[in-house]
């Protein structure tokens, strides 16, 4: 369960950036969310081109999901972005 107001995923408190990413992925599960869209939405237009930001935070979110033994995971779609899928 994800509490958008508290930014908690099954009781685990997320940072604002992590929450921003998971919010966007949860809006369109099973669909690709482009990296550029996430950068603009979560970091703003001044972060354009900083792909590493996304990779670091997605990695953190993957660890949280794994530690929670979640039935969802974040997959990478090479050259496009990410999507949230059920496992």
What does this structure look like?
Helix 1 (16-27) crosses helix 2 (35-43). Helix content is 44%, strand content 23%. A hairpin with a 3-residue loop joins strand 5 (72-77) and strand 6. It has helices spanning 16-27, 35-43, 51-67, and strands at residues 2-3, 8-9, 12-13, 33-34, 72-77, 81-86. The chain has a 3-stranded antiparallel sheet with strand order 1-2-3, with no helix packed on it. A 3-stranded antiparallel sheet has the order 4-6-5. The chain has 87 residues and is of the alpha+beta class. It contains 3 helices and 6 strands, in the order E-E-E-H-E-H-H-E-E.
So how many helices? 3
Q: Tell me the structural class.
A: alpha+beta
Give the strand order of the largest sheet, numbering strands 1, 2, ... along the chain. Answer: 1-2-3
Please give the largest β-sheet: 3 strands, antiparallel
| Residue fraction in strands | 15-25%
Order of helices and strands: EEEHEHHEE
- Number of separate strands: 6
Cα-atom radius of gyration: 12 Å
